[in-house]
């Protein structure tokens, strides 16, 4: 193998050229991925810098959306690609521990995403304009009250306020 061939050889080709078994190759690949990920800044395959994922303008979400981290208090940037769908009536998104929906009646609602029956993540149904749990069929109104069991307890409701320009949704306890 000449020098030019070595320089253009990809990692997989190089490892195969060492005549290692499949399990050994997988271990090397996995170890390489874990090591690269733990450094946080490099893509394990291309070794190019990746975009940071700190909350803020890049994610469209700021504040706290998980109940385990204290009081719910977050804002959603609806101009961010991740959440832009929430500008369309009849859509919803799971954000942290909540389900946030823009109802077909053009109202924003935010509720606990955890079904009070056995904890399955609920969804918004635009056709019925309600919250539904696909696990056992419980239905909730947009204020969180039970419309149909087996769930018997309401979903916790949060305040969802849209900004005057329609671009920022603020959710608080
Ligand atoms: S977990 Fe939701 S209805 Fe059973």
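^ structure tokens above, recovered residues below v
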């Amino acid at each position: 193998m000449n020098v030019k061939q070595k320089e253009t050889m990809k990692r997989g080709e190089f490892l195969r050229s060492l005549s290692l078994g499949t399990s050994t190759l997988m271990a090397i690949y996995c170890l390489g991925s874990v090591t690269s990920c733990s450094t946080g800044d490099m893509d394990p395959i291309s070794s190019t810098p990746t975009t940071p994922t700190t909350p803020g303008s890049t994610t469209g979400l700021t504040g706290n959306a998980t109940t385990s981290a204290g009081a719910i208090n977050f804002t959603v940037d609806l101009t961010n690609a991740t959440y832009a769908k929430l500008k369309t009536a009849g859509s919803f998104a799971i954000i942290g521990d909540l389900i946030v929906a823009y109802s077909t009646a053009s109202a924003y609602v935010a509720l606990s995403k955890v079904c009070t029956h056995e904890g399955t993540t609920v969804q918004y149904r635009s056709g019925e304009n309600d919250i539904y749990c696909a696990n056992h069929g419980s239905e909730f109104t947009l204020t969180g009250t039970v419309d149909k069991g087996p769930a018997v307890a309401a979903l916790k409701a949060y305040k969802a306020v849209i900004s005057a320009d329609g671009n920022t949704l603020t959710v608080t306890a």
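Residues 115, 117-118, 120, 133, 135-138, 150-151 surround FE2/S2 (inorganic) cluster (CB under 6 Å).
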